[in-house]
Amino acid sequence: MAVLYMLLVLFSAVFVAGFILLVMGAINFDLSNSEIPPGVNQPIKIRIISVILITRAVVGKILENIGICSQLSFLRYMQNRKTLGGDPKLFIKDLCFETVPVRIYQPKAPSASQRRGVMFFHGGGWIFGGLETYEKQCRFMARESESVVVSVGYRLAPEHKYPAAYEDCLNATIHFMKNTEHYGVDPANVIVCGDSAGGNLAAAVSQTLAGSSDLPKLRAQILIYPGLQALDFNLPSYQQNRGVPFLFRERAAFYLLQYLNGNASNLEEVLEGSHIPIDIKLNYRKWVSPDNIPEKFKVRGYKPHVLLDSTTEVYETVKRFCEPNLCPLLAEDAIIKQLPETFILTCEYDVLRDDGLLYKKRLEDNGVPVTWYHLEDGFHGVMNSFNDWFSFSSGKRGLDNIM
């Protein structure tokens, strides 16, 4: 018995020591690889969350190396654990629209008129996220705006490459718009909404439906720090915020390549800008250019980037980056002109900031009403955590402005 006790104590000591070393390694990695500018909201909390995320990633890699599960599966499991029960103010139900899993949030209080409907597409770089990840935000939106919110559990990369996520979001939206009467929703008051990769999907769905003649027009689109192009990863915001949590410049390109091809074999070419031929870049330069970014967003360490050409071999692997369903910023003016009223939220310390600014200009140039809200102290993912210790005051401020 004494020997067993000693072994247990030894095992516990080794485990604790190993965990401490793991956390210390995560702290060192965070300090070495991330940059938190002075104007960022609650920097110490960002550091703590970043260390937690890095530690999770390392644990996932260890589990993968010893054959228990893949790192990706572990990280998804940690994200998507169910933590909430019922809600006294909402009916919450899991369904499938066609083959797409959705979760519907309906206010319990009776309404004198038909409600607004909100199709919500979660973020996560097309790789992470799900119905559980954004549960708190969806409940908040349904309660505060007294809307019927439909959260879409679209297929994820790299298992399901482009256009799987886009097709799921489009098909779920069409299904809902054809059946709004079942949920007490006004068919003329349906909104698409998404953050990050979800903002990309919302913009793509909105463009596709803009020319539809057999469905009601979307009432609006809400794009929360959306990623909208893959031609230029050297825009001012990509340079200035390349190491700001929770989305590094390299990760942004990595996620897009995973969504496109299921791998990131051309990551270096994409980052340096040698993945798209110069003639094609020049064709789109009227829309994707630092020249279209207001000067006040260039003062923080921006250096103009030299245009590089691409080999045919590399371009062949990424040429679908020029498709608007993947990169909505590249849609033709004829489509942009038909888009509904738009709300765009951007964050100063976000690599995707300039995607939002460029899209804002395109919409305004084509006569689309735009409401723009910019979080001067915000960063990518600031609205992902909500109403707990991991939340940020600027994120709550952004969510309040959306509602």
UniProtKB/TrEMBL annotation:
For this protein, the record's Gene3D superfamilies field holds:
alpha/beta hydrolase (3.40.50.1820)
Span of domain Alpha/beta hydrolase fold-3: 118-263, 315-383
Q: Name one Pfam family in it.
A: Abhydrolase_3
> SUPFAM superfamilies recorded for this chain?
alpha/beta-Hydrolases
Keywords on this record?
Hydrolase
Record-annotated active site: 196, 350, 380
Q: Where are the transmembrane segments?
A: none
UniProt entry tagged with the keyword Hydrolase: yes
Does the UniProt entry include the keyword Hydrolase? Answer: yes
GO molecular function terms attached to this record: carboxylic ester hydrolase activity
Which Gene Ontology terms of cellular component type are present?
membrane
Which protein family is it in?
Belongs to the 'GDXG' lipolytic enzyme family.
Name of the featured protein: ADCL4 protein
